[in-house]
Amino acid sequence: MNKLLKLSNVSLNYTIDNNSINILKNISFEVDYKETISIVGESGSGKTSLIMLIGGLEKNSAGNIFFKDSEISNMTEDEISEIRRKNIGIVFQSFYLIPNYTALENVSLSLEINKLDNATKKAKEILDRFGLSNRFNNLPSQLSGGEQQRVAIARSVVMKPELILADEPTGNLDSENTENISSLLFNYIKDENASLIMVTHDNNLANLTKRKIIIKDGVISENQ
Ligand SMILES: Nc1ncnc2c1ncn2[C@@H]1O[C@H](COP(=O)(O)OP(=O)(O)OP(=O)(O)O)[C@@H](O)[C@H]1O
Ligand SMILES: [Mg+2]
Predict the structure, then answer these.
(1) Which residues contact 28 (CB under 8 A, 6 or more apart)?
(2) Does the reported pTM lie above 0.90?
């Protein structure tokens, strides 16, 4: 059966002062369409680095990464960013909204970059779906943390990506907002048949995914 994502013996090294440090070692796993996976592990174990590789924001030093049968590890920067823009939504712990753009502009920008019609209408629809219809014209500084993360998620899914990568999406939120954001994210993924790879320190959140991958010192120690 076709897989959405396949990593085969992927490694990541960083060179600092002529010393090569091995951050990720021989990482292999596959992700099915519509599958949800959490990635857990201690601080510094390599979870964010893995998300960066899958999202094409870092280049792997060895091994192969296939997204829907295309080998992204062999592509040019332009080819990778094209795939990322259209197929992969990324959500970070810090929301990274553009500070001088309104909520609506932050979301519609992705559609405009991709030259899609009705960018404003589509951006309004997704913000409305995430309970932000009365916040279209607010700047990020005029939004609460939970609202900012809802805008950031709206931005990451407005292109209807098949894969959503989330790196501690609730890491900066209190428990009430954590619950809101997690139900919003999981409902969205179910309704839209998307796949999710989510890094989290929160066991309750990790338990909502179908599979769990545990990383220890840059290697997969468990793949449940
Ligand atoms: N650009 C970089 N150059 C050199 N080393 C790096 C770089 N980015 C990360 N590292 C190192 O790689 C290791 C893994 O970092 P990573 O951010 O992936 O960890 P993490 O599992 O996400 O941790 P946390 O739970 O704290 O977010 C760390 O030892 C870190 O210092
Ligand atoms: Mg991290």
Answers:
(1) 7, 8, 9, 10, 63, 220
(2) yes
